[in-house]
Design a protein that fits this description.
The chain is of the alpha/beta class and 375 residues long. The chain has 14 helices and 14 strands. It is globular. The chain has helices at residues 36-50, 81-84, 92-115, 127-130, 149-156, 169-174, 214-224, 237-244, 260-268, 285-292, 305-308, 322-333, 337-347, 350-367, and strands at residues 4-5, 18-22, 54-59, 70-71, 118-121, 139-143, 162-166, 182-183, 202-205, 228-231, 252-256, 272-275, 297-300, 314-317. Residues 1-9 have low confidence and may be disordered.
Length: 375
């Protein structure tokens, strides 16, 4: 299949367009962010608006007021007593999200063409893709995850006026049998994640769940003789109590779920960041954030992390090998912090990412002129 890779290059400035952004519906888009998807959406919406585009974001209630978001009505939907009594009833959160996206897509089918030039779907829900043939305006969907069964099902019935972005070459290859896509690497605000002097302690930050490998970072830090701080929301209490809490003390500290301002300050004053995914990360946002701060990374070579971390910004080793990770940590910690930062600015900047999205959206509007929806 033909695939494209979007890289910075001189080209005509994309036209200003009216963009409807379908954001995640489960968690509010506000600091401290629930995860990378919410942080990505916040940055993208903010920067597109700053560049002059007319942006309308659909997001969960409680999202940052500065985004001027329109709220999904998922929280207001209450399944009837009769449906809740059915033994096969779906979880309330699932059906509420389903209702939110269903309502929005019907609304866009009825009147979206009067308000928008293009729809950008950054959620990971299947309905925007599945219902895309109802739209008379183009839909661009960002694929943040590997192929999932409900997304694959949606792909089979998508409209012709639908295009795709993947957040790394790794994700592009994962989806290659399903769709053509354009790679736009995720980015971070390198002005916010500014250069820092480092410090005496290492850092691990992110959602505390088994697939993020927090315990691997702890074991590697102990073997390397490093003190370690851990920051992030506990999404798996059992994992935290069994694999993290017993290690806590002077050498390993849990700082809690920090707001982004505090987290950035901690990261820029850390000597090293451990990034320890036990699955194939579609991108690796924490690695980009750490290196933007000048903090080198020691991590597992999984997913797209080799696209984020270069020889000047960190060391990657075979997955789930804490002993090798401990050795890599010593090497990474010795890297010049200014070179670590320079690599992040060149490869992981928000400006580069937003320019990539502008080009994709501009191409979608130009080639996907308004069509009669296939009902």
């Amino acid at each position: 299949m033909h695939r494209t890779n979007l890289c910075p290059r001189k080209s005509p400035e994309p036209a200003l367009v009216r963009i409807c952004i379908i954001g995640p519906a489960r968690f509010p888009i506000i600091e401290p962010f629930a995860g990378g998807l919410e942080a990505h959406t916040h940055m993208l919406v903010t920067k597109l608006a700053q560049r002059g585009h007319e942006v309308t974001l659909f997001a969960a209630r409680g999202s940052d007021p500065s985004l001027n978001a329109s709220f999904y009505d998922a929280a207001e939907f209450e399944p009837s007593t009769a449906t809740r009594q059915d033994v096969g009833a779906s979880p309330k959160m699932w059906i509420r999200e389903h209702h939110a996206y269903l309502s929005l897509m019907i609304d866009l089918a009825e009147s979206g063409a009067n308000r928008f030039d293009v729809v950008l779907n950054v959620s990971i829900h299947h309905l925007p893709i599945a219902m895309s043939r109802l739209l008379s305006i183009p839909l661009v969907t960002t694929l943040h995850t590997p192929p999932l069964d409900w997304l694959e099902s949606a792909m089979r019935v998508r409209g012709a006026n639908t295009t795709f972005v993947t957040v790394s070459k790794h994700m592009q290859l994962a989806w290659a049998d399903q769709v053509d896509s354009t790679v736009v690497l995720n980015g971070v605000d390198t002005d916010a994640w500014r250069f820092g002097p480092g410090g005496e302690r290492a850092i691990w930050f992110g959602r505390i769940v088994p697939e993020k490998g927090t315990a691997d970072a702890i074991r590697a830090a102990f073997e390397a003789g490093m003190s370690l701080d851990i920051a992030g929301p506990v999404h798996d209490k059992g994992y935290f109590e069994a694999e993290v809490e017993p290690w806590l003390g002077t050498q390993v500290r849990y700082l809690g779920h920090l707001d982004h301002s505090t987290l950035r300050d901690v990261v820029r004053h850390s000597k090293l960041a451990f990034v320890t995914p036990r699955w194939n990360e579609p991108y690796g946002l924490v690695a980009a954030e750490a290196t933007s701060s000048g903090t080198p990374v020691a991590g597992f070579e999984r997913g797209a992390l080799p696209e984020v971390i270069g020889a000047s910004s960190g060391r990657l080793v075979q997955a789930e090998q804490p002993h090798a990770l401990a050795q890599a940590a010593a090497e990474a910690a010795a890297l010049p912090r200014d070179e670590v930062r320079a690599h992040a600015v060149a490869h992981c900047s928000l400006e580069r990412m937003v320019t990539g999205y502008e080009r994709v959206l501009d191409a979608a509007v130009s080639s996907g002129k308004r069509r009669t929806p296939a009902l």
